[in-house]
Design a protein that fits this description.
The chain has a two-stranded antiparallel ribbon with strand order 1-2. It is built from eight helices and two strands; from the N terminus they run ααααααββαα. The N terminus is likely disordered. With 251 residues, the protein is mostly helical. It starts with a helix and ends with a helix.
Length: 251
């Protein structure tokens, strides 16, 4: 009987060591990553190239699913061990009862820790907010107005600029010089039509093009670097289903 308890203890030790290694490695990795990011001072907005932060969030939903699967497996292993210990306790002598009871309590604590870790993993991206929905909506409108005003002012000022060279004036988006670079910045995945560069009726006025292009770049990077990391995307099939529901509601 004592041999059975010792075998159960060895299984628990391996699980506990695994927990410590995972938690310790995670803390060190996060510390190093944070230090490296701070040291480089990388900008958050208008970043054209992938950064370490982008790579960290890449496929984050799949990574979370794997971590949750591992925790669920641990819980099931602990529960099986608890069941074995309870069977041992039913046959244990009075002298062995205290030792078996301690093992049972230790296993119960391990189960609670694994369940708590799973719950924390599911909610660690959710931030509690005591603001009213109206306040949040007003803050978003304020940000939108600030972006609109900034981009409109820049567009109007650039439209007033006059080239010092003999090149023809830039009146529409189709007259923009170095067009391949502009297309790559706005549409790295390939140009769509109609687009910011060319509408169905031709080129856009240059002030309008600059204004909308800046809005597009700023909003795209705010979404990519701020909203997506803190509000993980659904899996493709779930995202498609929700999008269909939304389109149906709009109609």
């Amino acid at each position: 009987m004592r041999a059975r308890i010792l075998q159960s203890n060895r299984s628990a030790s391996r699980l506990s060591k695994k927990d410590e290694d995972v938690s310790g490695g995670g803390a060190v990795g996060q510390k190093k990553g944070a230090k490296a990011h701070t040291g480089r001072g990388e900008p958050i907005l208008l970043v054209m190239d992938p950064t370490d932060r982008d790579k960290y969030w890449e496929n984050r939903l799949e990574k979370t699913d794997r971590q949750l699967g591992g925790l669920n497996h641990e819980v099931e292993t602990y529960k099986k061990r608890l069941k074995d210990l309870e069977a041992i306790q039913a046959q244990a002598s009075p002298q062995e009862q205290p030792h078996v009871q301690r093992e049972i309590e230790r296993t119960q604590r391990a189960i609670r820790r694994s369940i708590d870790a799973s719950a924390l993993l599911r909610t660690h991206l959710q931030v509690s907010d005591d603001k009213e929905p109206g306040e949040i909506a007003a803050a978003f409108r304020s940000v939108n107005r600030a972006i609109d005003d900034l981009c409109r002012d820049i567009g109007e000022d650039m439209a007033k600029l006059r080239s010092t060279s003999k090149s023809p004036p830039i009146k529409t988006s189709l007259d923009v010089r170095r067009m391949p670079i502009v297309k790559q910045i706005l549409y790295p995945q390939g140009l769509t039509n109609p687009s910011l560069i060319e509408s169905s009726s031709g080129g856009r006025p240059i002030d309008e093009f600059v204004e909308f292009a800046l809005q597009f770049l700023i909003n795209r990077d705010i979404d990519y670097h701020i909203f997506q990391p803190f509000h993980p995307l659904l899996k493709p099939e779930a995202n498609g289903y929700v999008s269909e529901l939304y389109e149906g509601t709009r109609r």
